[in-house]
Structure formats: C-alpha cells, structure tokens
Amino acid sequence: MTVDGRLARGERTRSAVLDAAVSLASENGLEGLSLGHLADSLGVSKSGIFAHWRSKEALQLATIDRAVAQWQELIIGPALRAPRGVRRIHALHEARIDFYATRVLPGGCFFGTAEFEFNARPGAVHDRLATVLADWTALLERLVREAVELGELPAEVDVALLAYEIDSFGIAAAMRSRLFDPDSTYRHARRSVLDRLRGLCPDPTLLPEGTP
Q1: Cβ within 8 Å of residue 59, ≥6 positions away
Q2: pTM for the whole structure
Q3: Which residue from 41, 56, 51, 40 is spatially nearest to 14, judged by alpha carbons?
Q4: 56 near 34, Cβ under 8 Å?
Q5: Model confidence over 7-31: pLDDT tens digits?
Q6: What is the DSSP letter of 124?
Q7: Cβ atoms within 10 A of the Cβ of 59, count?
C-alpha cells in the first residue's frame, strides 16, 4: 500500500508538472521550459521533477504528448460527438475556437507557438511536432472525405485543400488574437469556415446561419 501510494503521488506530480509545462510553453515556448522554473511554479522540489525527466528534451517531448491529450479531450472528443459530415467539421472548428476564446492556455495555442519555434530546428522535438501536425491534418481530411461520402460536400471538392483552409483559419485566429481584438478575430474565424462549408454543402440548412 505504501508503494502504491508513492506511485499514485508520483503520477499526480507528473500530471501536474506536465499541465503546468503546457501552460508555460504556450507563452514562453518549449525552449523556455526548465525544471527549476516548473518546480518554482508548482512549489515542488527540482529533484522531484528531475526524477521523471532526465533531460530538457525528454521534458519537452512529454509536454507535447500532454498537449496532444489535452487537445483530444477538449477539442476532438467533443467534436466527434456531432453527426458525421459537415456538422462534425464545423463542430471541430468551433471547439478549437472555443478553446482559444476561453483561454484554457494563457498563450492561446501551444502548438502554434511550438511549431513556429521548432519548424527550422531539426531534432526529436521537431519530428514529434511534425508527426502531431500530420495526424491533425489527417483527421481534418478524414472528416472532409466522410462529408463527401455522405453527399454533404461535392464529390469534386479538393479534400486536402479544404482541410488546409480550415486549419489555416484556426491558426490565424490563434496568432492574431494575441495582437488584435480577440472577439472580432474569433468571430471572423468562425464565420469564415461556416460560410465556406455552407457555400459548398448542397443542403446548407444542415449548418447554422452565419452571424455578422
């Protein structure tokens, strides 16, 4: 029981550290992470954190994995409960914008920050981020293909291009909301994807009407 208790406490500490790491990295980048900074922010010992990650790179990789789990829990999971087709695509984009708008992370988007930081820096962190982005792109493309198969998008639609457009509106919202009025930025991001889907869908009534 004592061993199990230590393991449980260790797992709670690990989860708390990774949650804090995702939050800090959304503002300061993955290079801004340090065991000392995390220990100070959580009020725990640096040695306790070092027991989980023996290097900064190991911590960075674990932080990416935690951010993926958070994205799955708060964005992808809820969106996949929407009906397949254009409504699911729309729900995914809305969940993403809601994630930004409710400031789950102080820096807005962990992945936007990390990808800009490491896109020209080869190594394990770059490769892990590339894999995460490829998986996200594949999900968007799969949802677009499903909508085509259901007849809710035209057969001739360019699947990869539409997925790219939707993701681009999300990235733009995350970046511009940090520099400009966030309310109008998020409104434009929502309206842009909604109008794009309504313009393509043979039955636009499947989607809500746009708002100014």
Answers
A1: 21, 33, 35, 38, 53
A2: 0.90
A3: 51
A4: yes
A5: 445 567 778 889 999 999 999 999 9
A6: H
A7: 23
